[in-house]
Amino acid sequence: MPPKSPTILTVKDNNKSVPARVGKQIEIHLKGNPTTGYTWTRLGFIGKETLSDDDMEVHVKFEATDSVPGMVGAGGLYKVTVIPNHKGHHTLQLIYTRHFDVKPADQKYTLHLNVE
Known about the structure:
One of its GO terms (molecular function) is cysteine-type endopeptidase inhibitor activity. Keywords: Protease inhibitor, Thiol protease inhibitor. It comes from Leishmania enriettii. The protein is mainly beta. It has one domain (7-115): Immunoglobulin-like, CATH 2.60.40.2020. It is globular, with a radius of gyration of 15 Å. Helix content is 0%, strand content 48%.
């Protein structure tokens, strides 16, 4: 039997509580444009090499959307992969920010995981 696809969440799932399983991948798809200096990252992890902790593994990958040849500054989709490490209630907070800015994040994304 082929492995099941990960649960995929979007901005519509912001501030929701979702069921999850230990070791089962969840993917969050969020629009963004790194050419502006902005990126999605985990709150409290700005500038760190890892976004993971004891509660969950978190990885962010950007995929550019197709654009007109020669066009600069095209956006795309950030794919945030989350894998819960143990049972319990965990909260993931993501922010869309520039690492060099001191002002508050422009956008926030919060997800409450009820891990079985």
